[in-house]
Write a structure and sequence with these properties.
alpha+beta, 4-stranded antiparallel sheet, 2 helices, about 20% strand, globular
Length: about 120
């Protein structure tokens, strides 16, 4: 999935000293690709992860650079919430965050998973 942020809304809420979740939880803010069974995904703990915008690399890293690996992330989150099959966990993003504009084509992927394509409307 893509973890999108409306920086304009986030910034305005920060200026007002208010929670900025509105900048993270707007309509269509978290597009997701097809679900892949863990057994079919390969070694996602050491998988390259990338985002291209209009065919050019915007972000490129590896899942092994996360602060916590996948299992540790699930362990930490399940201590605070009851996680259920089908729950989605977005971990944030590698370096390279930048704005997108109407007409941009985003293609994101984690090796072993089906790439996700999103056109900004």
């Amino acid at each position: 999935g893509l973890d999108m942020t409306r920086r304009d809304l986030q910034g305005e809420m920060k200026k007002q000293g208010r929670p900025w979740c509105i900048g993270k939880a707007y309509d269509h803010s978290a597009p997701i690709g097809p679900i892949t069974l863990a057994a079919d995904a390969g070694d996602v703990n050491n998988a390259p992860i990338w985002l291209q915008v209009n065919g050019s690399d915007r972000q490129r890293s590896n899942v092994n650079k996360l602060i916590w690996n996948v299992a540790e992330t699930i362990e930490h989150l399940s201590a605070a919430w009851e996680l259920q099959p089908g729950d989605l966990i977005y971990t944030g993003t590698p370096e390279g965050v930048n704005a997108v504009v109407r007409g941009d084509l985003l293609v994101g992927a984690v090796e072993g998973l089906t790439p996700l394509s999103v056109s900004i409307g």
